[in-house]
Specification:
Blueprint: H1 5-18, H2 24-32, E1 47-49, E2 55-57, H3 76-79, H4 81-112, E3 124-127, E4 133-137, E5 140-144, E6 150-155, E7 166-170, E8 176-179, E9 195-200, E10 205-210, E11 220-223, E12 230-234, E13 239-243, E14 249-254, E15 263-266, E16 269-273, E17 279-283, E18 293-298, H5 302-306, E19 311-318, E20 321-327, E21 334-339, E22 345-347, E23 359-363, E24 366-370, E25 377-380, E26 386-390, H6 393-440
Antiparallel strand pairs: 1-2, 3-4, 4-5, 5-6, 7-8, 8-9, 9-10, 11-12, 12-13, 13-14, 15-16, 16-17, 17-18, 19-20, 20-21, 21-22, 23-24, 24-25, 25-26
């Protein structure tokens, strides 16, 4: 058996006692006062004596003072954290719900809101007998003098008319004939007065021109300058009408009318584009035989045939020639062709690359070709050669203001929706954070 050194010493003392080598009393006191030491011994606190010999245990550094400790939740500020967190959580969640609902409502409104189209040019043009030029763009009328200098700007809103109002023609006294097409209205008879409007642009006044009840839609109108009589093509009913400047019916006749008719008067004859072929139908305009068809002339330039341009989009008598826009009904590609008075093909004016001609206008001895995608209007001389395009300063200003307002409105919508989404997420995160604090405290 292996004995520890202390145990060996104690054993030696006991052996000496048994052998009567040391007194028994000494051996007992020696063995009883020697404690057994191990590696787990904890050093005892030192004691020091006080004035009367009493001893006191010394306090170790860092030991807690049990007389100064207080419960953790005894602080009033801490005990109120849960209440405050719960209140903030409820407010944050409520604000998040309101923000999400507002975001949903505004998003639906934004997606269903009619989109404001970006404009890049005029939508229609007209000229009076004084060679004053009128441009229509985004519900605004821009009048220019014969030199092309802007003189008058008038909006349909100022006239109490919808933006969809169409300009038809100028009368002999330079009044403008308008068709107040309201959204959802399919005929002039459905208008509250069942009338067209004769407007004085300079005075900003309009007077109704009541139409006969038999006219459903004034699809196209031309005015005889000598008598101021109106020739109206009704594509809905398939009829042609002749009325006075007071709206009294003079004559009418059935005819095959295309969906987008063009009506012209020249040389005592009435010309209307054909509905079934690249042709021009010729009718009698006199009262006795009004609407009797005299001829139908096919327009077959080689370039138009090769491009399958079988639809007459517009035509006009200008600079002693007929100018015609022939278009492909499938692709929409179109070109301008010139014919003499007998409808013999003469030439094909050169348009700018990518042009999409939509309307022709005789302006003094020039011919204007309108493409609503271009700010400038292409201009040609009497020989069909291109000249410097007509550029309207008032039109450019209108387009810039409109597009800037459109971009600003779109930006404000996006910013508002983004801010609402961010606010909803922030309120939701704050509510979740205080919900956790409410659970902890």
């Amino acid at each position: 058996t292996v004995l520890l050194p202390e145990r060996r010493k104690q054993k030696s003392v006991e052996d000496d006692v048994e052998n009567n080598l040391v007194p028994h009393s000494i051996s007992r006191s020696s063995t009883s006062r020697q404690p057994v030491k191990t590696a787990l011994n904890v050093p005892k606190r030192e004691r020091r004596k006080t004035g009367e010999g009493a001893s006191r245990t010394l306090k170790q550094s860092g030991a807690p003072n049990f007389f100064t400790l207080r419960p953790f939740r005894n602080n009033a500020e801490i005990t109120q954290r849960a209440v405050r967190s719960q209140g903030i959580m409820q407010i944050a969640f409520a604000a998040s719900v309101v923000a999400f609902l507002t975001l949903a409502i505004l998003s639906i409104r934004y997606l269903t809101m009619p989109e404001t189209a970006e404009i890049s040019g005029a939508s229609a043009i007209a000229s009076n007998q004084q060679s004053q030029l009128l441009l229509q763009a985004e519900g605004t009328l821009l009048l220019h003098d014969r030199a092309g200098v802007p003189t008058t700007t008038l909006t349909f809103d100022a006239l109490g008319l919808p933006p969809s109002t169409r300009i038809l023609a100028f009368t002999a006294d330079d009044n403008l004939l308008l068709d107040p097409v309201h959204p959802g209205r399919t005929s002039a008879a459905e208008h509250e007065s069942g009338a067209l409007l004769r407007c004085d642009i300079k005075q900003s006044t309009c007077a109704p021109l009541k139409l006969p009840a038999v006219i459903e839609t004034a699809s196209a109108v031309t005015i005889e300058s000598r008598t101021d009589a109106l020739y109206i093509a009704d594509a809905t009913a398939g009829e042609v009408f002749k009325i006075t400047d007071q709206g009294e019916l003079i004559a009418w006749s059935s005819a095959t009318i295309p969906s987008r008719p063009i009506v012209r008067l020249h040389g005592g004859l009435l010309f209307i584009n054909s509905a079934v072929a690249p042709a021009i139908s010729i009718f009698r305009p006199d009262n006795q035989a009004f609407g009797a068809q005299l001829d139908e002339i096919l327009l077959l330039p080689a370039a138009a045939v090769n491009s399958q341009q079988s639809q007459v989009r517009d035509f006009v008598w200008s600079a002693d020639h007929w100018w015609v826009i022939l278009a492909n009904p499938d692709t929409g590609h179109a070109a301008v062709y010139r014919f003499d008075e007998q409808w013999n093909y003469v030439s094909r004016p050169t348009l700018k690359d990518g042009s999409l001609p939509e309307q022709l206008l005789s302006w003094a001895d020039k011919t204007l070709v309108l493409d609503h995608r271009r700010t400038d209007i292409q201009r040609f001389n009497a020989q069909g050669d291109p000249e410097a395009p007509f550029a309207s300063e008032s039109l450019k200003t209108l387009i810039d203001d409109h597009n800037h307002s459109r971009a600003l409105t779109t930006t404000l919508w996006h910013f508002t929706l983004g801010a609402l989404a961010a606010l909803a997420m922030i309120c939701l995160c704050v509510g979740l954070l205080h919900r956790l604090q409410n659970l902890v405290y």
